[in-house]
Peroxidase (Nepenthes gracilis), 332 residues
Amino acid sequence: MARSQILLTMSCLLLAAAVTPDMAAAQLRQNYYANSCPNVEKIVRDAVEKKFQQTFVTISGTLRLFFHDCFVHGCDASIMIQSTPNNEAEKDFPDNLSLAGDGFDTVIKAKAAVDNTPGCTNKVSCADILAIATRDVVNLSGGPFYPVELGRLDGLISTAASVAGHLPSPTMNLDQLTTIFAENGLSRRDMIALSGAHTVGFSHCGKFSNRIYNFSRSSPVDPTMNGQYAAQLRAECPSDVDPRIAVGLDAVTPRKFDNQYYINLINGMGLLTSDQILFTDERSKPVVLDLARNSRHFNRVFIRAMTKLGRVGVKTARTGNGNIRIRCDAFN
């Protein structure tokens, strides 16, 4: 190999090594599309509002979609890809089968609205549209409006096999939750703040039935659960009923994005094991108490955590491992 070729190869390797995740995230910025599609956020907002008017599931569906996307391969819309005969995609992994179709539909309709706008066609990534739409559903349900960093490219890989072990489960304890969030550069406080998204949305009975039926030999109901709340859940989810029936994650204000989730935890009304553990474990309890006291404080902490989440594993023009998809559900 000629000396010039060796030097060129070494330079390429050094450049690739220099593009760290932090540097990739640093390429994100507000108003990224100021020149290429200046009205993108309004276009997405209008599409999200139309979808929201059709069904409230738009809120929780889009939120969960964003979380599940960022935790596997990073925030690159890989969750959107449809499986093909040659590839089983992320969305068909068992833990993703409960993702509401309305979340996918929200992004697809917003993408169509953007691409139908003169000058914006194929200029905005599905990953960025999902990030904007997530901010908008939070705000539409009563939560804060916050600036979204943009500049993500869409990922080139989506496999069901890559999902295993990367998503939080409803039965996890605090150590397990802390570990899985730490793998994405998120602190325990970030994890507790992001868990506040459970102030909207729903869960299927099968995800928490172990807490209200045959919990242990000494108690059929999880003793950390409020007795009246447990009775309410048993009425909504009889032991012989279809486990696909769902109930609200927040029994008090299920359609409002607020800090009621944390108040519920204090009152023993966390629906999932992974919810209630945040209060019963003394290490996380002070944060729950802190976020329960003041909704504005919760909003600030939530925004910081969402911004950090939106930087996870991003693909940018500098990393060179992504593109802008023509269709959100299929590779170009």
